[in-house]
């Protein structure tokens, strides 16, 4: 199937070979075209939130991340529920609402623990955010352990989430 001016679509996990603009369009099409109970809607909403944020539409990114978190919970996609909450938490911290952001990320960590997502490459984003919060709280030993896990998973996730290769490393560096 071809879209976008008759160019072939090359999907690579959660990424799209065409860049941010075309990824945004693809996510929008997925959210409009997939049935309401399709679990991929949660992933599309999360990726749309990331793309919008990277394109400096923080409010749009926040709305999509919240939608992703809600869809992740309602459609039983816990990794997306955790990632959506973690992304919202990072946005809150970036906007100077440190306590609110830390609270959201710690809620994300509860989902990670409950569903053993610390074993999945797709859990690298939430674990990176958690390591940041643990460091902010002064728990350096625990933060170091969490960061090591997040870095290991980030290496695995590079092929399925190219955006994380940049954003994840920025969070991890902080």
Q: Which terms would index this structure?
A:
4 strands, mainly alpha, 5% strand, two-stranded antiparallel ribbon, globular, 174 residues
Give an overview in words.
- Helices cover about 70% and strands about 5% of the residues.
- It is mostly helical and about 170 residues long.
- Helix 3 runs antiparallel to helix 4, helix 6 runs antiparallel to helix 7 and helix 7 packs antiparallel against helix 8.
- The longest helix has 18 residues.
- The N terminus is likely disordered.
The helix/strand series, from N terminus to C terminus, equals EEEEHHHHHHHH
> Can you give the mean pLDDT?
85
**Structural class by SSE content:** mainly alpha
User: How far apart are the first and last residues' alpha carbons, in Å?
Assistant: 41 Å
Concise synopsis of the structure shown:
The protein is mainly alpha-helical. Helices cover 71% and strands 5% of the residues.
Question: Layout of helices and strands, plus pairs?
Answer:
Elements: E1 2-3, E2 7-8, E3 11-12, E4 15-16, H1 20-33, H2 40-54, H3 58-74, H4 78-94, H5 98-115, H6 124-136, H7 140-157, H8 162-173
Antiparallel strand pairs: 1-2, 3-4
Helix pairs in contact: 1-2, 2-3, 2-4, 3-4, 4-5, 4-6, 5-6, 6-7, 6-8, 7-8
């Amino acid at each position: 199937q071809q879209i976008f001016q008759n160019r072939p679509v090359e999907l690579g996990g959660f990424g799209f070979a065409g860049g941010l603009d075309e990824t945004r369009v693809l996510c929008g099409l997925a959210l409009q075209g997939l049935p309401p109970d399709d679990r991929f809607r949660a992933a599309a909403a999360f990726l749309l939130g990331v793309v919008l944020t990277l394109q400096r539409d923080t409010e749009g990114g926040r709305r999509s991340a919240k939608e992703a978190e809600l869809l992740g919970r309602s459609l039983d996609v816990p990794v997306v529920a955790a990632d959506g909450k973690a992304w919202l938490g990072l946005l809150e911290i970036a906007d100077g609402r440190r306590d609110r952001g830390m609270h959201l990320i710690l809620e994300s960590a509860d989902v990670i623990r409950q569903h053993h997502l610390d074993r999945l490459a797709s859990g690298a984003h939430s674990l990176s955010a958690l390591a940041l919060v643990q460091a902010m709280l002064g728990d350096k030993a625990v933060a170091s352990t969490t960061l090591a896990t997040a870095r290991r998973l980030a290496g695995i996730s590079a092929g399925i989430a190219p955006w994380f290769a940049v954003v994840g490393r920025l969070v991890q560096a902080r």
